[in-house]
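[step 3/7] fold_predict: job queued, chain A
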Amino acid sequence: MGISDYVTVSRQSGLLNEMQIVANNIANAATTGYRQEGLMFSEFIDSAQGRSAVSLSRAQIRNTSMAQGTLTQTNGSFDFAIEGEGFFLVETPNGERLTRAGSFAPNADGDLVTMDGYRVLDSGGSPVFVPGSVEKVNVASDGTISVNGQPLGQIGLFLPADSNDMVRENGVMFRTDSGTEPVEKPTILQGFLESSNVNPISQLARMIEIQRSYEMGQSFLESEDERIRNAVKTLIR
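[step 4/7] structure written:
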């Protein structure tokens, strides 16, 4: 392979990675609390000994959009949406995780849990407890849960200590190894859910652009392969 081939192949690989990310965004356009993901291209200089440096493309850095998703009213007592910054903190078998998906429900033990059964944590890092006999609870904008005017606890909102340290584990869960810190002025809306912040139209448009760019690169590789074949045939005649 020539230098131009290596450059093109590195670009093709990055385009394939981005296509997978865009397709995943579109698939999760209706997923509650989903954060749109993108891919950043960077330059990689390959300066192998014995030849000139070659500029290749590298697409390995993923970034997550923290734009506010649309807030949809559900009137559910245990549906919560975050307005502004912050994440709910939930307890999973693999440790604490951050999420914006606020569709919760009490389990048999009275703990407030996610749809996957993970316990939601309060501002102090303890499970949020809701009495099983209670059908209606009130949640203030700061996350304070009360029944008949008596406060029971406070749903916690947290931010990663290092925003660059967040790692997506699945569609709506994030891991952070730097720890978390509470949001100073949390805003939680009861009876609402935050929709995905994916813009399907722009993502479909980007998918078409990626496909066209990939096809152009593929055509170049095929043309270059044909040129080399013809050159070899000419030399061996």
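[step 5/7] annotate
The CA atoms of residues 46 and 103 lie 48 Å apart.
The chain has two domains: 3-66+198-236, 71-194.
exit 0
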